[in-house]
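We emphasize that the prediction below concerns an isolated chain of 687 residues; any contacts that depend on oligomerization or on bound cofactors are therefore not represented. The input was used exactly as deposited, without trimming of termini.
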Amino acid sequence: MQFANPVFLFGLLAVLVPIIIHLFNFRRYRTFYFSNVKMLQDVMQKTRRESQLQHLIVLALRILGIAALALAFARPYIPHADSQNKQGNLVTLFVDNSFSMDANSKDANLLQDAILAAKNIVNAFSYSDDFVLITQDFSAKQSHLLNKEEVLSLLDEIEISPNSHTLDEVLAFENNACSRSIKQNIFRYYISDFQKCNFDFADLQHDKKGRTFVIPVLSKPTNNVAVDSCWFQAPVLKRGQQVTLQARIRNYGNSEVVKLPVKLHINDKQTSMAVVDLQPGSSTELQMNYTIDQSGYQRAVLSIDDSPITYDDRLYFSYNVTPSTGIAVIYEKSPNKYLRALYGKDSLFSYTEMNVKQMNYAKLADCQLVVLDAVTSISSGLADELKQFVTRGGSLLCLPNENADLKSWQPFLSALGCDYYTAIVTATVKVGKINYKSRYFKGSLESTAGAIEKPTVLKYLEQTHRQPAEMIMQLENGSPLLSAYRAEQGTVFLSAVPFDDAYGEVHKHALSFIPFHNIGIMSQMQDQLFFTIGSDNQYTLGQTVQRGEDVLTVKALKTGEELIPEQRNTGNATILFFRSQVSEPGFYEVSQSGATLGVLAFNYNRKESDLDYYNEDELSKLSKQGETFEIMNADEKNLTGQIAEQLNGTPLWRYFVIAALLCFLAEILLLRFWGRAKMEEPTNKSA
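Result of the prediction step, given as a token string:
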């Protein structure tokens, strides 16, 4: 047996008080002589032995009562069998404040219940313990050790947050914060509604040091329908073009949804509407058709009406309608007339030609497609610029040269994750397999069932076959003729032949015109339609911001609030890092010196839309299987006492209080009824 407050053991000295009182109150008996004792026959005679016995019993009861009371204040307990002698405790608290915790509970909402439970837990520990408080915000304050007063104060500041992290991410943040403490006795408490999309309890098995407690705050079953995502079928958006927007609506509830209206607003004007039916736990995709009637950045919103959960009823997205696709052709000797005919005379393209020896790299920022036309060698400077161009989303078309310095081409293409040219092959070969399902062919031919006369190649450059690629066109011998490679955010196209009569008739054939023309059309770089709040979002702007000039600012169009994100120049582009600066959904305008450079859309994370939780039975089963955590009840009235019991062991103070009360009660009964029983005995005999 050990004591939580051993200082109260000095209270045992109080037993000297009844001892001293009893020593000075022992009465000495004297003899009195009466001439007549007839009237004293009914009086009970006390003997000296009886009187001393009564005094000793009362003294013993008082000593035992005071001793039991002193021991009760010292809070005795029986320690756990696995307890260790460790000085001080480290207490980590995770309070889930995601959107799902805004659901109603018996008293208020789940978040308030979780905060109250957290306060009861903190009150069970002492002021000398270390505390770590973690929420979904992962703020800087939460990465530091706190004392008892600080953690109680921060608990009152917790509000619903749009952020949502998995248990694995919470544990990583927790381990980093706890590394600053020297306390070895660790207690972890996780208070949440435990949505299955965020909590994988297998992650708790990684660290069995200390004790882990799971405290569920459960909500009532609720239906929810969310606008999940959207995308365009057309890769390029032009003014006057009829486009199809594909949208996904998901029903997370257990009830069927019938005739739910879905509305599309563009620039605050309703453009289209559709109606959907949703089975329980299912999703559906719908198409919304409309005509683009203006250029520039468009602000669009997909919306539904669904309650009580409404944060996922609106999906904000933005896109840019540009008048043309910028194409730059880099040549070595003279401009290519076939490329000029293919791209230069089409109103869809903004065509530029540059000699490789007189490069203006700044113009690449306005281009979406760069064509390397029979360039002999790739300098290190050109290689770096083109790599940065492709990395931020540009398309690169490589047309080879039989006299090329393949040693300079090899590291350049390898760095982009592409195959590279190896040797010139002189042979007459017809074009063989064509991938009509490729996005660069799909929809361009009415029928592919009939025989199509294919062009002939007189010579070509052989390539390696090591990297994964989309084969667009092949020769009859299986060698690639035109292939596409994904490189970061962009695409690299390798052609085995240039646009030159000496290599055959591929560049003149209508069948080859289709993919090369579509490469130009589909190279229009569209910005990301929308970003997710709480993620590591970054936006690439196709221009650099020079030092000393005005920095880029981001303004919320709804509230007018401005922020300055982290900015980093990379080649001819600037990358903006938003981190956790954006917390409200809506549209944000990127500008510099008053000029609008982009419009971004932010939305809440849809993970919280899935209202599938672990129930009490599932949590109990998981705790028994893994034996990595214990379950506590957040509704427990004496949660503080329950924590103290788990902290120290089995408490015994209640038993000592009961023992003290029994001793005092026995004393009262003894003093009251001992003498009365002796007085009634002679009376009964005389009767």
